[in-house]
Fold these 3 entries.
Entry 1:
Amino acid sequence: SRHDKWLCMMYPRLKLLKQLLSDDGAIFISIDDNEQHYLRDICEEIFGTRNFLAELIWKKKYTGGKGTKTFVDYHEYILAYAANISQIGEISMDRPESEKAKFTQEDEYIEERGKYYTRPLKSNLDPRPTLVYPIELPDGTSVTTQWICAKSTYEELLRDGRIEFKNPRSSKYPVYKKFYEKDAGGKVKIPSILEVTSNNDAKEELKSIFNIKSTRDLTFKTPKPIKLVDIFVRNFTNKNSLVLDAFAGSGTTAHAVINLNAEDGGNRKFILIEMEDYAETITAERVRRVGGNFDFYEVGEPLFVDGDINPAVDAEQVRAYVWAMETSTPYVKPDADDCAAFMGVNKDTAYYFHEGALDYEFLATMRTRADSYIIFAETCAVGEEFLNKHKIYFKKIPRDIIKIWADEI
């Protein structure tokens, strides 16, 4: 089915993305109703139930739906998982502009705490006897009811100047708690429903970048808005983080990283991956136009076809891959006076990639001295005793290269 094909495409990619996450990293996946519940299942398997952070709802539009027979589709989902939830600190975001308007009152703490607003200290929760106690008012009278905090907490708030009394004759509730705009560094918890921006805003951003007048002329129809991606880049990275977007689309993630670096002087880096034919004309071009500095690469032919090395792949590319996977270092074609199969030396081990048999005739062509040797070849015609004596390790082509690839995935 279509869902099967989609899952078969996503599963290995998510397995690899998990390996690429840092210990304190997190992944955010935007998804619609079509695949949301399927995606949740495979994420639970790959990342683990304990590493689930949230299933966020993003309100992507505010109008439309005239042609629908049932419900109006106003939202999408964002699934969030941690690589290791124990490494994730407290999660918060800058206070939205819409919330800042309620801070209108001032007191003697204005410089250190900013302005404040108040809420009644009275509780509307189910009865809890431990929250019922008398509070003495400035006029000498007292009020006994159920409050939102224990008496010891109230007394601490009172000492800290966070309680405000109002005339009981003019106010329904005489005791209020103050909430200051600079508390928690001006941060608030990220809500599970995000209404920061819309798809229409994203299209307007793309039109402005590419100097397009009409939405109908956009060749990329489903961009994500910068403000949405900024929530995650801003609150889940530090100034030196590396941000990877494996389904880059129009390049919004890079745009958000560039904007935040310009704002706070950060040195965040980004990697974008896009398989569609607009990767250079839209994704990369957008990053160029917003001032991004980056390198652009096109992925070559697949390394394997039906369990064999792809004959369309140059042997030097195969060597580069094998070298990188074996040594975790970049491959540089050696200048050493050795045979064509020689790849280099790493940690006193010499590496060879020989498209033929590992036999005594081939061994006679090797000139590099090392403590040990790893030789990739199609077959081995040398006895095990000789190999062990000279610390030569045979790895079969393509079986052991495929094993490296499989372990990576």
Entry 2:
Amino acid sequence: MRKFQLTKVFGGESEPIGTFDTKPQAANEMEEIIDSNNDDLDEDDEDYLTPFDFTLKEVEVMDVNKEIPDYEAAKRFIGLVPIVKTTISAINPKHQKALIALNTLFTIAEVWNKADNFVPDFSNRNQWKWFPWFRYSDDAAGFVCASTHYTASGANANIGSRLCFKSEERATQFGKQFIDLWNDYLLFR
């Protein structure tokens, strides 16, 4: 699928901003960054941004939720070598299912984030990170993905930092698509 990748190139450094479905979306994001940055600056200030400080290129982007729909596809994508099965025997049997589900979620999230060019940086308070948010439903006899939650500076103890995403849409998609794995991880059965 064709998308538009916006990058800030300023002061000799390149910073990816994001990938957008349309040119106008990328242009709007660029304008917001410029306006926010230049709010208290004069045109002569060395940190003053202009559209010339950005590049926009058309790129082919993988539809990651379709290309990487499960753990096996994620393992193939990153070249994960199978672990010797004897190491699993050292895990408390009561928690094996939960730990295997968590590992599976970590692996798929890693691949999805790689495809989205997203590297969570918890030292960067300006980078937003989105997490699936769940509630327990008696009707579903398990957790359902109720919404998403974001943070720019910290992580709660009940949210895994390896399971965050660059957008609300991606976090919701991940929470819903892999709800069975989340239930294996979150529920003690």
Entry 3:
Amino acid sequence: MILRVAAAQYPLTKMSTWTEWVQHTEHWIDQAVQAKAQLLVFPEYGSMELVSLLPLDQQNSLPVQIQGMGVFQKEFLQFFQQQAQAQGVAILAPSFPLYAEGFTKPVNRAFFCFPDGRMDYQDKVYMTRFENEQWGVGAGETQEKVFEAFGVKIGVNICFDVEFPFSAHRLARQGVQILLAPSCTESLWGLNRVHVGARARAMENQFYVVIAQTVGEARWSSAVDLNTGRAAFYSTCDHGFPADGLLAEGELNAPSWVYCDLDLSLLEEVRRDGHVLNYQTMLRAR
């Protein structure tokens, strides 16, 4: 089975109206659908462009801007839910910082929209220093969820989460075949930490890892003003795959979709009878 995946190199764009945001995002989704993508992956904090619709005093306050974004939360989620169903695709929407029941701090939540109209979410668990110390965004629910679309089991590690093996290992034990890593990094240092983590997770668990990232400058934003990113697709390094495990990557900081056809049959064959049996070894480990 082949699943065509689109990973966004997404520029945070200053908007004037909600309608402008809708038209802008519809254009992005239409591009991927026309390219026959079945799973569309947007980056971490891609929703922050909605802050440009808030009054200036809210835009310039890190804690207040998250409260202000709550005005758009319901319509934001409905938009992606409706788009996924109307287009017959699965969409990992841009993660959204929000206040959730049971948490004293806002959490960073990525919503997975299914082709049949259902929607679920995955929270970020490991927070960066900026999120913790300056922005006030905290860890969300620690449970890893498995999303199944088109007969494929999919998990999500948001940005910093993919730099640690624990969550990815638990997802692999549940049969996940594709791990999505939506990300937002300011510098090449941050970009490389995420990509090195993603490559390690792909090797350890013998599954695909897909990175989508924000790109370019958004000087109007006090939270995500600088973005260094590229989308990439990683596999394990074994027969049938590239020797370095790099399936596809985009041009640094160039707004675009990056596409890759992921062969799930080849993945299962390598898990069963590869040169090395990382996945089987991981399953046997305590």
